[in-house]
């Protein structure tokens, strides 16, 4: 059967850590939205199953009640798998099981054990988009086992991310993309820096705050407060830093504010799987200063669209801030247009999904 021409019926299973649209799901929320819009544009049909309160304009969403899943990034390496009582994850996948015959494929956006474990028990194939690097031994094992039996069903965002899973060799890396036309190029920035992320310890906001304090360049902070205690600690510790919390903005508002900044500081302590905010900044013409690890390492063009600095070195951030005008804001926008368009991602995405459907129809 030639699947190339076939339009797919797809069920997207969202993250169970938060409602879609809340911001607490992190980059997965924008990724799911972009995947859905691009695949719909290509004629595929998408339905979404997600926790209660989830919204995505233009798509049917089956909302599921239940207790949200604990985010994997808060777990220690040797923690066991935890499913809360009345688990929304469990009920989302129970729903997926009962409706699976209406779909060609289920796309899993959850970084959780259950969907990986369930893969061989479903009659329909499950495509797994792995959205974070290795965090726990239990998840590593679930991912490795799926890789062993159904290697075609796994996709990662970056090589740096995939390399954190020791058993994964020659992974499929999709990168990521944004709807470039929704981001305005800004040629003349104000004298401010940007930091855009969930406010949580793994993102190390304090490093950007110290760099802002030492250079005297104001720092605009955008993002959901994931850990209120952590945010309070930063405010208490650096009361005189020239920082301003701008809230969690819609993409439209975010790009307008972000575009006015001289640089985006990316300071994660962990291996960022990709870092959507990096390509959002580039699309606005904003160069990136990032620690040299994880996804941003594969995005930044040294000296042209940003600087990669020694991980966890605030001095490195400061040195790069001093050189930021060497980067060309037009080159940033051009890189985003060339490498991170939804059209290019859509080709990779479709090829992956067709390959899974094809593999299943042969066996
Ligand atoms: N974001 C947003 N509004 C804000 C700040 C952030 O919509 O005010 C979004 C941003 O577009 C990105 C996500 O939050 O998609 C953060 O994702 P990223 O991949 O950078 O990190 P994650 O939270 O997944 O670790």
Task: Describe the 3D structure.
It is a single chain. This protein has 363 residues and is α/β, with parallel strands linked by helices. The protein has two domains: 9-177 and 341-362, Glycogen Phosphorylase B (Rossmann fold); 180-339, Rossmann fold (3-Layer(aba) Sandwich). Helices cover 37% and strands 13% of the residues. It is built from 13 helices and twelve strands. The strands form two sheets. It has a six-stranded parallel sheet. Strands 9-8-7-10-11-12 form a six-stranded parallel sheet, sandwiched between helices. Helix 1 (27-41) packs across helix 13 and helix 6 packs across helix 11 (314-322). The chain is globular and about 60 Å long. The two termini are 13 Å apart. The model has no long low-confidence stretch (mean pLDDT 96).
Strand-helix topology:
Blueprint: E1 9-13, H1 27-41, E2 45-51, E3 61-64, H2 88-99, E4 105-108, H3 113-118, E5 126-129, H4 137-149, E6 154-155, H5 159-162, E7 193-196, H6 205-215, E8 219-222, H7 228-237, E9 243-245, H8 251-258, E10 263-266, H9 276-284, E11 288-291, H10 294-299, E12 306-309, H11 314-322, H12 329-339, H13 342-362
Parallel strand pairs: 1-2, 1-4, 2-3, 4-5, 5-6, 7-8, 7-10, 8-9, 10-11, 11-12
The structure holds uridine-5'-diphosphate.
């Amino acid at each position: 059967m030639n699947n190339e021409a076939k339009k797919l019926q797809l069920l997207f299973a969202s993250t169970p850590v938060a409602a879609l649209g809340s911001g607490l799901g992190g980059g997965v929320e924008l990724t799911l939205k972009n995947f859905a819009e691009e695949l719909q544009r290509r004629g595929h049909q998408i339905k979404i199953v997600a926790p209660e309160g989830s919204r995505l304009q233009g798509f049917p969403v089956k909302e599921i009640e239940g207790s949200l899943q604990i985010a994997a990034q808060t777990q220690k390496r040797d923690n066991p798998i935890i499913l809360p009582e009345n688990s929304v994850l469990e009920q989302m996948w129970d729903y997926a099981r009962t409706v699976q015959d209406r779909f060609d494929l289920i796309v899993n956006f959850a970084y959780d054990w259950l969907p990986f474990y369930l893969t061989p028990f479903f009659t329909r194939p499950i495509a797994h988009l792995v959205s974070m690097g290795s965090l726990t031994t239990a998840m590593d094992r679930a991912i490795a086992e799926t890789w062993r039996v159904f290697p075609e069903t796994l996709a990662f965002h970056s090589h740096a991310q995939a390399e954190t899973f020791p058993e994964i060799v020659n992974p499929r890396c999709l990168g990521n993309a944004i709807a470039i036309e929704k981001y305005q190029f800004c040629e003349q920035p104000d004298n401010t820096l940007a930091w855009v992320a969930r406010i949580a310890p793994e993102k190390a906001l304090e490093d950007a705050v110290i760099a802002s304090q030492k250079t005297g360049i104001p720092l605009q902070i955008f993002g959901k407060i994931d850990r209120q205690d952590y945010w309070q600690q930063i405010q208490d510790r650096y009361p005189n830093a020239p920082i301003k919390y701008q809230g969690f903005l819609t993409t439209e508002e975010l790009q307008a504010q972000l575009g006015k900044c001289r640089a985006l500081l990316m300071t994660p302590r962990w291996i960022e799987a990709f870092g959507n905010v990096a390509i959002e900044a580039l699309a606005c013409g904003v160069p990136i200063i990032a620690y040299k690890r994880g996804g941003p390492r594969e995005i930044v063009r040294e000296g042209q669209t940003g600087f990669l600095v020694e991980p966890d070195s605030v001095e490195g951030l400061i040195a790069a801030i001093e050189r930021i005008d060497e980067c060309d804001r037009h080159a940033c926008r051009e890189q985003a247009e060339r490498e991170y368009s939804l059209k290019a991602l859509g080709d990779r995405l479709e090829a992956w999904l067709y390959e899974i459907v094809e593999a299943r129809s042969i066996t």
